[in-house]
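Q: Could you predict the 3D structure of HMA domain-containing protein?
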Amino acid sequence: MGNVVELKVGLHCEDCIKKILKAIKKMQDIETYNVDTQLNKVIVTGNITNEEVIRVLQKIGKSASTWEGEEINC
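A: Sure. Here are the predicted structure tokens for HMA domain-containing protein:
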């Protein structure tokens, strides 16, 4: 299993979520992706970095930031 990237993203409406999922789906080397609308969180696993996912989201006009201080241990 690759890296787990968790980012804080504003998920305001269904259109926002669809746009985000469509952009992430096009990324290379991803294994899974999901959004948590309760926490405004985007979770992506694969051979990717925080910066790569942030860059993709910025291209579609979304600002994203990391969840500081929270680590996932696999």
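Q: Anything worth pointing out?
A: Residues 14-25 form the longest helix (12 residues).
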